[in-house]
Design brief:
The complex is a heterodimer of chains A (about 250) and B (about 230).
Chain A: E1 20-27, E2 35-42, E3 48-51, H1 58-66, E4 73-78, E5 86-89, H2 100-110, H3 115-128, H4 144-157, E6 162-166, H5 174-189, E7 193-197, H6 201-207, E8 210-215, E9 218-224, H7 225-230, H8 235-246
Parallel strand pairs in A: 3-7, 3-8, 5-6, 6-7
Antiparallel strand pairs in A: 1-2, 1-4, 8-9
Helix pairs in contact in A: 2-3, 2-4, 3-4, 4-5
Chain B: H1 5-14, H2 18-51, H3 57-67, H4 72-83, H5 98-134, H6 139-149, H7 151-167, H8 170-176, H9 186-195, H10 199-231
Classes of the chains: A alpha/beta (about 250), B mainly alpha (about 230).
Amino acid sequence: MSSLNVPVNNPIGLRAPPSLSFESVEFNPLGHRLFGPCSFTLESPGPTLVLGPNGAGKSLMLRLAHGLLSPTAGAVTWSGASTPRQAMVFQTPVLLRRSALANLTHALAVNNVPRKVRTERALEALARFGLSACADKPARVLSGGEKQRLALARAWSLSPSVLFLDEPTSALDPSAIKAVEVAVQEFHNQGTRVVMTTHDLHQARRLAGDVLFLSEGKVQEHTSADVFFRAPVSRQAQAFISGELIA
Amino acid sequence: MEDNAFYVALSLLVNFDASLYQIVVLSLQVSLLAVLIAAVLGFPLGAAVALWQFPGRGGVIVALNALMGLPPVVAGLGVYLLLSRAGPLGELGLLFTPGAMVIAQVILVLPILAALSRQKVEELLGEYQEQFVSLGMSRARMMPTLLWDARFALLTVLLAGFGRASAEVGAVMMVGGNIDGVTRVMTTAIVLETSKGALPLALGLGIVLLTLVMAINATAYVLSETAKRRME
């Protein structure tokens, strides 16, 4: 299968984001099956929203895809010759005990960006996420929303081809959620493959290009967002969506 | 009045007693240099033990923890044997010099710095690890980041090491010899004056030593609290 539909939803006409394949991926540490076996390919432009109840394996799936965890069996593969540049934004942003600016220059230094351009690029990323005024503030005294935006700015400064987000808005207030969603959309518009987990069905409706629905460590459904929210195929997804509506 | 320890201490300071000044300076030089060397070796060692899994890691951690309580006289004896004329490093002629005292104190302070920094770095690694792996950092690259981010905790560790070095008498006595004007430091001077029965002088020296240690700790505390309040 080729990703024929990529240019259609990619109005800027940037390079197509790399596609991600899980081939019979399993994760069973100490013999406990926590994930899989799962096979799927993310090749439509996304953003891909990973949905499912608590304990469905959403975070595990992201960590396996990003390489933070190694599958016990099976393989995670990317299109293209080499593994694409990736970044991840966590539910609780992990920030260094330094200024906001230093958090970004550190990430750039780690990625071998020459010293001369680091500050410039970091300031640019801060400005893009409305954090210019916070550049010299210690990262850890920022508000929850600012911290998450800083984590997004750090990811942005690395210009990743793939961005994973693990429930990035679950601890934020509505305006901060809005800012994160705008940023996610912007990553997507730049041609970054966005894969994000969320508990919030409304958010999923706003952002999703396609939906990966997990339950009990398995992919139950992988369809376009349109289909998923209109007429979910799997029984679990139907129950999940109606459960959310009743609640 | 002249028997009063506080009076003696005060008059020693006020009169800027030359031999006291020399003793104080040498004490500070030896202990600070020892702590500095131990930090340069011990912090990366502690961080390495925190970062890498290797066979015998548990043994290394137990050894470092146990060596925090190494009796100074045992360390002194070891260094004495190493540096004595017939010892393997006898040719260096270091025995009964300030250099030998520094070596002995490095051996005493190093386990404290390594063991405590291992704990601090491991705590921080637990918090940072996923982000580090996500950024594609190697373990070697993680080390300087972790040490820098643990800087406030490590300052306290450094003070613990300095406390051990400046308070210890057994090792510097054995390898330094308490030679007047050459290797006499505050602790060895206190032992000597006490044994001579010059209790007020000994007590006076004790007060000077205590004041110095307090001053250094207070300075470090104020500096780190100010910086910490701005950082966390």
